[in-house]
Amino acid sequence: MFKGSIPALVTPMRGDGAIDFEAWDRLIDFHLAEGSDAVVVGGTTGESPTLERNELEELVRRAKARVAGRIPVIAGSGTAGTAKSIALSRACEAAGADALLVVTPYYNRPTQEGLFQHFTAIADAVGIPLVLYNVPGRTACDMLPATIARLSRHPRIAAVKEATGDISRGAEVLKLSRKGFVLLSGDDATAAALMKVGSQGVISVTANVAARAMHEVCMAGLRGAHDEAAALDAPLTALHRTLFVEPNPIPVKWAVHRIKLVGPTLRLPLVPLSEANHAAVESAMRAAGVVAG
């Protein structure tokens, strides 16, 4: 389930901010056609802080129906509170999610023991696998390799999305964790390199617009063809960088709009990509072989 290129999907919205479910179906169809290996619904790239619970549930239900068993649907269900995360995780499970992506609690900065108890409580409360999500650059909370390894012993904690971009840390996570525990990159720029130390793929921002290319990079890495993976990744380098020229998901939503899959709307407090950065993102898209509409 946790392998290959897994786009963290943008959430399509109409001009008034309502979710555009017709565009959502179109987006799912695009990723099925382009070879994405799973999808994440309601992650950070999907503007999770602005989604209401009923909206996330409907996004999961529709994605699950649309993929019709062809690829897994992973729902973002982490919040800053344990009880809220449990409730949201159960709701996503009931809506049909195959697995859950659960970010470390943000802002309140728990200890490592607090993190262990938080994720254990969530895993105990559901019947589907969890992917831990460590992204200290956004959360001000860093889950250390020893804590990840401790959590890996739980039968429903199956993987970690490690978004620090630190290759040596990824290697340490795998060394300390139980056999079969899955490491996934959460950093597109270093995803191919992380596969050299045993990562099984990436939960990706870039794959929103360069889905086929990211799938091919991951397939090469999974075959152990790391030179090929690096060569396939090289044209994506500028895209990996420019999709973070402003906070995610501002640039990627503009890019997905440029290929006519979704509208440009974001929910406040996010605002559209500044005009000064349009040319850089479009240039990176062209370099990656992505042609704007």
Commentary on this structure:
This protein has helices spanning 21-34, 53-67, 82-94, 112-125, 136-139, 145-151, 167-176, 191-195, 211-222, 226-233, 237-242, 250-258, 278-287; strands at residues 4-7, 39-41, 73-76, 99-103, 130-134, 157-162, 182-185, 201-204. It has one domain (4-221): Aldolase class I (TIM Barrel). A 6-stranded parallel β-sheet has the order 2-3-4-5-6-7. It has a two-stranded parallel sheet with strand order 1-8. The mean pLDDT is 97. The longest helix is centred in the N-terminal third of the chain and has 15 residues, at 53-67. The protein is globular, with a radius of gyration of 18 Å. By secondary structure, the chain is an alpha/beta fold. Strand 6 (157-162), helix 7 and strand 7 form a beta-alpha-beta unit.
The end-to-end span amounts to 33 Å
Any idea how many domains? 1
Secondary-structure element order, as H and E?
EHEHEHEHEHHEHEHEHHHHH
| Cα shape | globular
Number of helices: 13
**How confident is the prediction overall: mean pLDDT?**
97
Q: Name the helicity range.
A: 40-55%
CATH architecture: Alpha-Beta Barrel
Secondary-structure content class: alpha/beta
